[in-house]
Amino acid sequence: MFAVVLAAALAAFPQDLVLTNAMVHTGASTPFEGRIVVRDGRIASPDAEPPPGATTIDLHGAFVLPGLQDAHGHLLGLGTSLVEVNLVGTKSYDEVIERVAAAAANTKPGDWVFGRGWDQNDWPDTAMPHHAELTAAVPEHPVWLVRIDGHAGLLNQRGLFLSGIRAGSEAPAGGEILLDEHGEPTGVLVDAAMAAVPKHDPTFAEIQERLLRAQGECLRHGLTCVHDAGVTQGELEQLRLLHFEGKWRLRVYAMVAESERELIRKGPWESRDGLLTVRAVKGYADGALGSRGAELLEPYADRPTSRGLQGMPRAKLQELAQRCADAGMQLCVHAIGDRANRNVLDAYAAVQVEGGLASRRFRIEHAQVVAAADVVRFRDLGVIPSMQPTHLTSDMPWAPDRLGPERVRLAYAWRSFLAIGVPVPFGSDFPVESVDPRKGLFAAVTTRAEQGGPAQGFRPDQKLTREEAIAGFTKHAAFAMFAEERLGTIEPGKIADLTVFDRDLRTCPENELLEAKVVLTVVGGQVVHDARGR
User: How big is the CA angle at 307 (ends 304 and 312), to the nearest 5 degrees?
Assistant: First the structure.
């Protein structure tokens, strides 16, 4: 039974709306010809009369689809990325240093400088960086720069000192401290080793500011719901406060961090208006492929001495899975490598729960490299692979080097899952990737880079139709949050979460998928982003 939080400030939430002259993609069998009527925040029947006083919007032929969801993102991480040094898209280590030095010039000496988004795979020299050049350019500030995937980071010399990292320092289990040829730390810490960096927790006011910034970015890009992966008690409290104050408009399905034992024990919770839901738990089975932290069954093709890093051991995974099942919570475990995916499936298979494991809809987040023998286990166990199409387009320049020509053909296999009847919710993993769902749609239907790359695509056998890709961001995402009866399609009685584009995403040329403009974002019948006339 869901507990209820009273959100008094939302009692007057505008909920009656009429959209006319629209092209409608319902994702379901009920047709809506040119008009959608919203009554009390829900979609009325196609022939319903508009409610008295309803707001009417003429869309002039714009394209309406069920509200787009991002099934795996990080709201606080997105907001934080907007206030730290942005290193996304840097084309060299020199460019990284330039941006950090510019930020340091406006920072009090001795204060930390934080940044995120570098990816050595995009540089002329694709080796992991050494702190020496960064230290020379920024000697008076400790610097901590998190890699694009969030599974590695770079410290300068002052940062290494304050983090207690020296020659001879031992990395914890599940982590790695990279060393140079002299046995000295390069400044790069991977996965569990990153915990050595002193915590710099934002204040409650900073958390709220960053959450609001993230909300604005999501709504601007047409997202109506985000599955927020790895929420702490403190973040959840600030989110609930923003909601109570009437400042929160984005639907959130929260996966609480696996360390939040009390939140897990309490079980599912939902706000009265359904904007905030806590029903899932986030865990980690390994690291990321780009930093060679993903756990593989066989060694990395470009580092034969390594098979990656293990996150939670199998016994801990199994204990967490059973605890979540007993509490009525859905477990969502990050697993990228094929060994990590197998370990999670094994742990899930051992769970004992009334109604069977499928009733809990346990998920594997990313499911990026899955052994052929394990694909069918997702269906047989009722496990949901939650995937991010833009990981393919980001990884395609170097993934074959990491995995080798044979194993790479088992990666990013969303069509393989769909072919055996497994729903595949789509997301972006923002801020690891862009929050923009157009990029995910493009990646899913083309499997090629936005600029350059093979014309046939990186994984042409995994290409989806437009309708299938849209379903990943709508119908399948709703299923993955137990909301298929109220979200994910445009049908009478469902909540009016809608995304409106200026062109038909089903028929426009492929390159126009990236150019389509979000006209309106509607959550619960309320227009929360309006770009008409801009």
Answer: 165
Q: Where are the alpha helices (DSSP H) in 287-350?
A: 314-327, 338-349
435: nearest Cα among 222, 247, 250, 236: 222
State how far the Cα of 172 lies from the Cα of 166, in Å rounded to an integer. 14
Could you give the CA distance from residue 85 to residue 103 in angstroms, rounded to a whole number? 7
User: How many residues does the structure list for the chain?
Assistant: 534
Q: Is 335 helix (H, G, I), strand (E, B) or coil?
A: strand
Dihedral sign, Cα of residue 170, residue 172, residue 174, residue 176: negative
What is d(CA 233, CA 44) in angstroms, rounded to the nearest whole number? Answer: 37
- Partnered with residue 495 across adjacent β-strands are 42
Residue 360 and residue 324 in contact, taking contact as beta carbons nearer than 8 Å: yes
Instruction: Report strand pairing: 23-24 vs 251-257.
Output: unpaired
Closest CA to 381 of 421, 354, 418, 348: 348
Gyration radius from the chain CA atoms:
23
Q: Are strands 113-118 and 526-530 parallel, antiparallel or unpaired?
A: unpaired
pLDDT tens profile 33-45: 899 999 999 999 9
Give the span between the Cα atoms of 504 and 525, in whole angstroms: 22
- Each residue's pLDDT tens digit, 223-265: 999 999 999 999 999 999 999 999 999 999 999 999 999 999 9
d(CA 381, CA 346): 10
Cis, bond preceding 313 (omega within 30 deg of 0): no
Reduce the secondary structure of 461-479 to three states and give it as a string: HHCCCHHHHHHHHCHHHHH
Tell which residue, 105, 197, 114, has the closest CA to residue 160.
197
Rounded to an integer, what distance in angstroms lies between the CA atom of residue 84 and that of residue 81?
A: 5
Cβ partners under 8 Å of residue 10, min gap 6: 243, 246, 273, 275
Phi, psi of 81 (to 5 degrees): -65, -25
Q: Tell me whether the CATH fold assigned to 76-196 matches the one assigned to 285-481.
A: no
Tell me if the domain spanning 285-481 has CATH number 3.30.420.40: no
**Domain extent listing, the chain:** 76-196, 285-481
pLDDT tens string 43-84: 999 999 999 999 999 999 999 999 999 999 999 999 998 989
* CA distance linking residue 189 with residue 478, whole number of Å: 36
* Domain 76-196 classification at class level: alpha beta
